[in-house]
Design brief:
406 residues; alpha/beta; Glutathione S-transferase Yfyf (Class Pi), Chain A, domain 2; six-stranded antiparallel beta sheet; 21% strand
Length: 406
Amino acid sequence: MYVARLSLTDYRNYDSAELTLGPGATVLVGRNGQGKTNLVESIGYLATLGSHRVSGDQALIRAGADAAVIRALLTHGDRELLVELQLNRQGANRAQLNRSVVKTRELPRYAHSVLFAPEDLAIVRGEPGVRRRMLDELLVQRTPRLSGVMADYERVLRQRNSLLKSARARGLAADRLPTLDIWDERLVALGSEIIDQRLALVAELGHPVAAAYQSIVDADHRPELRAVLSIDGADPDDELGTAGRVVSAGERIETSQPGLDTALRAYSTDDTASRFADALRALRPKELERGVTLAGPHRDDLLLLLNGLPAKGYASHGESWSFALALRLASAELLRRDSTTGDPVLVLDDVFAELDRLRRQRLAEAIGGFEQVLVTAAVLEDVPEPLTARIVHIDAGRIVEAGADA
């Protein structure tokens, strides 16, 4: 699959924009702040229903406008699909497929893309929420119905937290909150599915991440991914997410090491719901004291390891950057493997400026087989020559045809 045409109306700094694209690589080049990232961000939004730069939609709507519109003509073989999304300042967003109204959460079923940007360094160095979001966005692209499961879980979580806060304010004991059991059942049912889906995804990502990492750095640093589950006792306030045990300097976490903390064990998904329910019962006094739900997929983390050490805190800048990029490339491989509509669109937003010459070349080789690759760069010389077959200049929200002067 590739994006044949992209149209924007009142999106970011574009009052109106039309960009014709095709298979292969296209470089969007221009000075910082001209709107290169805005273009690729819009494509990513269709696939994930979110921006990699902001958490809400309001910043995506041009100042003074009531709504922004993203239109993309997707092509796979002889089939074309027009995807349209309207982001509204007031009211719900609206979506269409070939001019027929659909639910917005249906869009990831048709638009597949993987975007890597400088912000992705936070996947390795940032807070657990960034890693959870990475997993969930990939899950929704692979299984769109999970967006509904996640939305339902968030609603139940808000209701449960509201009840806990109310009980704390009123000084109620656990035995005087029978309605909490009802919310617990719903939370466990929805949360267990999310946990199991994430665990399966983490297992699937293992080999593709290792292969992608080695293709970029040409070294075996043994990248590993480990789920850290709050329902099994992981302390959500533990910075390194190692189940209440801080890893000391130089300590390596071995897969075969006996007596590992529960948060680092290999998990069986058979009893997730019972473990979740047990955790909620055990944590109820503390939850009533704090007024917040302390176990569930909203409190989990993903531990990233290089050579047995947590990448967060021990990996160098270059290693962290390569690990984050490997995670995105592995995600693209999974989407490519599963999709019936061809490769996902691969987007590299200002990536090559952060890499040395050798890693630029190796990355260009690693992505050469994808059907469509979109690259943004402030300096064209940063982009390896094999990816510069088509160049589009961006200047102050204006798209200049390939080969023309910006």
